[in-house]
Design goal:
Length: 246
């Protein structure tokens, strides 16, 4: 996912969309506010986003993604910013690619409205950030319960740990470069929270490489580590449409 003030990051609402362990709840008026943090290369960035379901017509769900700004009064929608996604009813089936269920995307930026083509919204920071995640873990483990407080409500959450690893081998003239990538996600979920019930989640993505056989003086890509956090800061039902389409 890409860098835009207020946009979601790689760990987002739909990262765990296909996991049957998480409840899927679509309801007109449902809304959630999330704060995401990313730690990478010694730097930390934070962003906030609101997701709200504003209509369901003719087998299509209308879901708004709105960047939030921090004010003295709390989190408020960034004026003139956001996108409206039209998602096919098949989203409930949790099959196929999520991006394939997108029927239309309307984008507001600096108060200007535009309808994006599939090629455009796949490159748009806010939209692509919200639809990137297809995490298919190789291992899923129940990790007990935890209690979290969100907007003065105490939620007893079920916790899940999920992980996957991938190895890629590239043959070079003097050996084989082996690249190893691991992805671990831990999620605390509660059925009262709209969409996927996510109250808190972390994602740890690491990659490393080694040359076989080892070669003195040979260079390999430096290891990388990216840690992302997604924290629910508010939720409910009764959201009003924030963007202009009907």
């Amino acid at each position: 996912m890409l860098s835009m003030s207020g946009s979601s990051q790689a760990l987002d609402l739909f990262t765990l969309w296909r996991q049957p362990e998480l409840p899927l709840r679509l309801e007109v008026g449902a809304w959630t506010d999330y704060r995401t943090s990313v730690v990478e290369s010694g730097q930390r960035t934070e962003r906030q986003v609101r997701i709200q379901c504003v209509a369901q017509r003719g087998g299509t769900w209308q879901v708004e993604f709105i960047p939030l700004e921090e004010r003295a009064s709390g989190l408020v929608p960034a004026p003139g910013e956001g996108c409206l996604l039209y998602l096919a009813e098949r989203v409930r089936e949790r099959s196929g690619g999520l991006a394939d269920l997108v029927q239309r995307v309307i984008r507001w930026q600096d108060g200007e409205r535009s309808e994006l083509t599939p090629a455009q919204w796949r490159e748009d920071p806010l939209v692509s950030a919200s639809l990137r995640g297809h995490f298919r873990p190789q291992r899923v483990r129940a990790a007990g319960e935890s209690v979290r407080v969100v907007a003065r409500r105490e939620l007893t959450c079920r916790q899940w740990e999920m992980s996957a690893a991938d190895t890629l081998k590239v043959r070079l003239p003097r050996g084989t470069l082996q690249q190893i990538a691991t992805r671990e996600v831990t999620a605390a979920v509660h059925p009262d929270v709209p969409f996927l019930g996510i109250v808190f989640a972390t994602e740890r993505t690491a990659s490393s490489a080694r040359l076989e056989p080892p070669r003195h003086g040979g260079s390999t890509p430096a290891p990388t580590l990216r840690i992302e956090y997604m924290e629910l800061v508010g939720y409910g039902v009764g959201a009003a449409r924030a963007l202009g389409d009907r």
